[in-house]
Design brief:
By secondary structure, this protein is α/β, with parallel strands linked by helices. The protein contains seven helices and seven strands. Helix 5 links the parallel strand 5 and strand 6. It is globular.
């Protein structure tokens, strides 16, 4: 028996949101490397195009589409692109998300609406669009991205944590609703992962770079892990590959934590 065949995605099609950078780009590349045709959605079309270039140069198949996940219409169009381009949809990784820093007690309604529209509604729209297609095919895998912030509350990440906790609960509900169609729904809750998403800690309010502050931030995150390390996007991408593949055929409705032990639940 070839154990690696369980991870083979040849002939399958995956949609990845937030595919232009960080965990999204790593996920798109890993899924393509496993044989999947990948549709790369990102608000930054140029970055999505760059991900496609990296995949195609490595011998994979991918296309890019500008997508604002806060728009149900655009998320529907992204999923429809997968069907029109490759004939089916087997996997969707709802990775796109935005940060929100600041005390919850000071949060404005505008900030709340902005973060909910991307982090919560964007994932909801992705799940709805995928299920619409997958149920006609008799199955598929949906992977949503939450955060370790759901397990380790901090005063500076209130809105972000609320939306990511919503993603975790949404995942469980969709797992119940979509299971009868043979669709699995899981969420990954990344720990500290060094990427463009965390690079915001390197900048001052005036736009200048503060490398010392960023190094201190990463140092604090390393101390939270028994391994003494922080993660990289590839660490999450490999977990998403597992959940996208037949190797995880009996897994649904769960929260998967690749976080270096920063939170243990």
């Amino acid at each position: 028996m070839d154990s690696l065949s369980a991870f083979n995605l040849s002939g399958r099609t995956a949609v990845v949101t937030g595919a232009g950078s960080g965990i999204g780009r790593a996920t798109a590349e890993v899924l393509a490397g496993a044989g999947a045709n990948v549709v790369c959605g990102d608000l930054d079309e140029a970055s999505a195009d760059e991900t496609v270039r990296l995949i195609t140069e490595a011998g994979g198949k991918a296309v890019a589409q500008r997508t604002n996940v806060a728009s149900k219409e655009e998320v529907d169009a992204l999923v429809d692109r997968a069907v029109s381009e490759f004939g089916r949809l087997d996997v969707i990784a709802n990775v796109a998300g935005i940060a929100s820093d600041g005390a919850l007690i000071d949060a404005s309604e505008a900030e709340l609406d902005k973060v909910i529209s991307v982090n919560l509604k964007g994932v909801l729209f992705g799940c709805q669009a995928a299920i619409r297609v997958m149920k006609e095919q008799g199955g598929g895998s949906i992977i949503n991205v939450s955060s370790t912030a759901i397990d380790t509350p901090a005063p500076a990440y209130g809105i972000y944590a609320i939306t990511k906790a919503g993603v975790a609960q949404m995942t469980k509900t969709f797992a119940f609703e979509a299971g009868r169609f043979g669709i699995r729904v899981n969420t990954v809750a990344p720990g500290m992962t060094v990427s463009g998403f965390t690079a915001r800690h390197i900048y001052e309010a005036d736009g200048s770079i503060n490398q010392e502050r960023y190094d201190a931030f990463v140092g604090r995150m390393k101390k939270l892990s028994p391994l003494g390390i922080v993660g990289e996007p590839i660490d999450q991408a490999y977990l998403i590959l597992y959940l996208a593949s037949d190797a995880s055929r009996f897994s649904t409705g769960n929260i998967w934590r690749a976080n270096g032990g920063q939170a243990m639940v």
